[in-house]
Amino acid sequence: MRQPRMSSVVERRLLVNYRVAPDAAARLLPAPLRPQLVNGHAVAGICLLRLGSVRPTWAPEALGLRSENAAHRIAVEWDGPDGVETGVYIPRRDTASLLNVWAGGRVFPGEHGRADFEVHETPDEVRVAFATRDGDTQVDVTVELADELRGSELFADLAEASRFFQEGAKGYSPKSSGPDLDGMELHTDAWHVEAGRVRSAASSFFDDPDRFPPGSAVLDCALVMRDVPATWQPLSTAPADRAARLAG
Predict the structure, then answer these.
(1) Could you tell me which CATH class the domain 6-247 is placed in?
(2) pTM above 0.85, yes or no
(3) What's the mean pLDDT in 100-126?
C-alpha cells in the first residue's frame, strides 16, 4: 500500500530532552545510525504530541482526527550519498488512539503501542502522563512555559535548541516484520518553539539502570510547540547503509 502524505495541526508538542552518554545511546541504535553529539553528549528524549485535524493532504480538514501520542527518540546521524544526514531514531511510539495502533505501519509509517494518557494543560503549564497497556513504559512530566532556555548543557539558548530539532525532521522507527525501518519527515512553514522549565519528570525508559547506567541519562531541558500546521511525508528508503544491505 502506498502511504499518503498526511496533514495535521500540532496542537501541542512537548519535547523533554536528556543528555546521554554516547556509548549508552549507541547500544540502542541499529546500524548504520550513530548518536548525533552535542557538546560531547548524545541527545535523547520524549516527544509528547497531540495532533489535530489529521487526514491525508487531499481530504478536507473537517474529516481530520485528533489523538494523544508519545515517542521516545534519540538524535542520530548517518552517512548519506551527499554527506552526513541527521534525524531521530524512535525505538518506541505509543498512542491513545485505536485507529493509530491499527494504521501505524500500514496506512502511515510507524507502528504504535496502545497507552492511556492523562493530560492537564493551561496556557502556562503542561502535564502529560501515560502508561502503556503492555506495562513496559510509564511517563509523567510537568513543564512550565519560560521566557528563555536556562540551565541546558546541550544548547546555549532557545534559538540553538530550536535549530537543532528543526533540522532533525526525519524520523525512523523499527518494524515488527523485519530489520528494515519505517521513515517519516515533518514539514512545516510555521516552525516555532517556546522554552520550558521542567517541574518534574519521571520516565521508566530513561530511569531504567539496565538501559542507562546511573549518571548516563540526565534531564537537560524542555521545549513546547503549540498550534503549528504540519505535514508528514513518508520516506521510501531507510538510511543508506541499511537500505543497501536490505537490497543486497
Answers:
(1) mainly beta
(2) yes
(3) 94
